[in-house]
Amino acid sequence: MNSNQSVKKSLEDEICASSRFWTVNDIVSALNFFSIPYDAQISGFSIDSRTIQKGECFVAIKGENFDGHDFIEESFKKGASLCIVENSDLPFLKKYNHLVVDDTQKALSDLALYTRNNTEATIIGISGSVGKTTVRTWVSEILSLVGETVSSKKNYNGRIGLPLSMLSLKKDSQFGVFEIGIDRQGTMQHFAKICQPNVAVITAIAPSHIEFFNSIDSLAAEKADLLSGLCSGGAAVINHEIFKKFPIFQQKIKEWYSENGVNNYLDIPTVGVTSEATAYIVSANSDFQKGQTKIYAKLAGVDVCYTIHAIGNSKILNSLIALVTAITSLYNENFGVIMREKWNNISDSLLKGMENLRVLPGRGRLFNVCIKNCQEVTIIDDSYNANPTSMKAGIEDLCSYISAKRRIAVIGGMLELGNISEKEHFYIFNLLNNTKVDKVYAVGDLTKSGFETLSSSKKGAWTKSPDEMSKILKDEIKSKDIILIKGSFSMKLWKIVKKFENSCISQPILKEKIA
Predict the structure, then answer these.
(1) Do 160 and 280 have their domain in common?
(2) d(CA 297, CA 307)
(3) CA dist 353 to 133, 178, 278, 323, Å?
(4) In the chain, which end has fewer C-beta atoms inside a 10 angstrom radius, N or C?
């Protein structure tokens, strides 16, 4: 429908006056309706009838395996105030407050865009093939010490997840930190338009979801489209290695200036491990008993030292990306100027935040369990996701544990690699053959051929399922072993992690090094 501009303006003013609740009229304005005969406050938005809360608006999304229209009545029985639907022919709808739209997924995006345009928050958009969830979580935790921070829910980062997360923003939120994931070409510009980040972050480029792209360069080009949505006076925090390797990032920056004018400023601090980067790691000392690392870095010429409760090169670099992002988000100024003139004012709070950082479950979490006659083993739970780059990093981290009696790798298949899948799996097993890993166990059809190439001394066992592998590991692990468990989420290696947790015979169940 066409919108009434004067009514829309007054409604936009109304939402700006309210920092906590949406109203039906706000939704009317966001979706360009004239008006509707309902009046209610909306406490939030949901696409899941199982978790919907009283007062929320239910958006009936049609997915590949479900149709939200089948759960409308359930949502209202649980207290929904309004529903947004595509199908107006449902006989029970007349009993409930509802809006009919052509596309509920588009409506969700329109609502998020309206939210973005009516908040004062500094928006941080984080993407990358690996590390984006960790960096997003850490940036949120650091900034939450400074002001009210809204972050992506769970790992909601796609066409539904990103707008749904953004709908938690309030007018007076200080920061919004959102993860942005892509699985095919042509999606990032859409996300950039909705998110309109003040700070865009690119953690890494690796062959994740590569089967939907022509090449690693086309994947990089898609990620670089995040920069197209950057606000004037914003910043782009980019991994220095990919900034050098992929010219598309410099090209996107030139395009940004062409569209926004050379008088507008864009700050581009890079983060890396060499002095070429704006911020770089000088050295890092890991304490394997405490599960923490003391990091020395130089940020725009300023020496900085901090400690994180994590071990491994990827975690160290991600922590610096998170710190630089947090610093950049606090001021609308050049990163070097901030470090020279403002660092003394913010260093205490930000470095305190760094000390509180922990690794997420499934993404490199480290913990000890006691099994079989109170034998203690260490688990590296990296079971949430895997691609060749993150797998290599996980293996390197495993090999860095100098105090381990044996280093054991439990490897699952890496999905969505397309026509490079076989080559990349062979590469990983060849890598394992030439490292300090003592034993390798493999799960799933994708790993079978690579497992056969291992030297006999390194071969543990191959199984088709994680349940079979759990039974084998139960008998073969020994005291003081350290075990990396890593594979794509669909390989379900997290089941092996759960088996270890459930078989722990000491109290408390987990003696955690890293939460």
Answers:
(1) yes
(2) 11
(3) 17, 19, 21, 9
(4) N
Burial of residue 258, with CB atoms counted within 10 A of its CB: 0-12 exposed, 13-18 middle, 19 or more buried: exposed
**Integer Cα distance of 417 and 487 in angstroms:** 13
Of 198-212, 437-451, 456-470, give the lowest mean pLDDT range.
198-212
More confident call, 17 vs 227: 227
SS (H, E, C) 6-73: HHHHHHHHHHHHCCCCEEHHHHHHHCCCCCCCCCCEECEEECCCCCCCCCEEEECCECCCCEHHHHHH
How far apart, in whole angstroms, are the C-alpha atoms of residue 321 and residue 22? 34
25 vs 510: CA distance, rounded Å: 49
The answer to whether the beta carbons of residues 186 and 227 sit under 8 Å apart is no
Q: What was the pLDDT predicted at 382?
A: 94
Report whether pLDDT(5) > 60. Answer: no
**Rounded Cα–Cα distance for residues 332 and 198 (Å):** 9
Q: Are 513 and 366 in contact (CB under 8 A)?
A: yes
The three-class DSSP label of residue 290 is coil
Q: Answer yes or no: is 113 within a domain.
A: no
Pairing of strands 175-179, 122-127: parallel
Total structural domains within the chain:
3
Whether 348 and 378 map to the same domain: the answer is: no
User: What pairs with residue 85 in β-bridges?
Assistant: 100
CA 220 – CA 242 distance, rounded (Å): 9
Could you write out the three-class secondary structure of 115-157? HHHCCCCEEEEEECCCCHHHHHHHHHHHHCCCCCEEECCCCCC
Evaluated on CA atoms 202, 204, 205, 207, the torsion sign reads: negative
Query: Do 488 and 369 belong together in one domain?
Result: yes
Assigned domain for 110 exists:
no
Q: CA angle, 493 as apex, 153 and 185 as ends, to 5°?
A: 55
Strands (E) across 450-507 are located at 459-463, 481-486
**DSSP symbols for 480-491:** TEEEEEE--GGG
* Domain limit, last residue, from 300, 320, 355: 355
Q: Where residue 477 sits, what CATH number does that domain have?
A: 3.90.190.20
Please give the C-alpha separations between residue 60 and each of 28, 67, 73, 380, in angstroms, as whole numbers: 17, 7, 11, 39
Residues 415 and 293 reside in one and the same domain: no
What number is the average pLDDT over the span 109-113? 95
Domain extent for 166: 119-355
Reported as type and span, the H/E element at residue 511 is: strand 511-512
418 and 302, same structural domain?
no
The DSSP 8-state label assigned to residue 436 in this structure reads: S
**CA–CA gap between residue 51 and residue 352 (Å, rounded):** 34
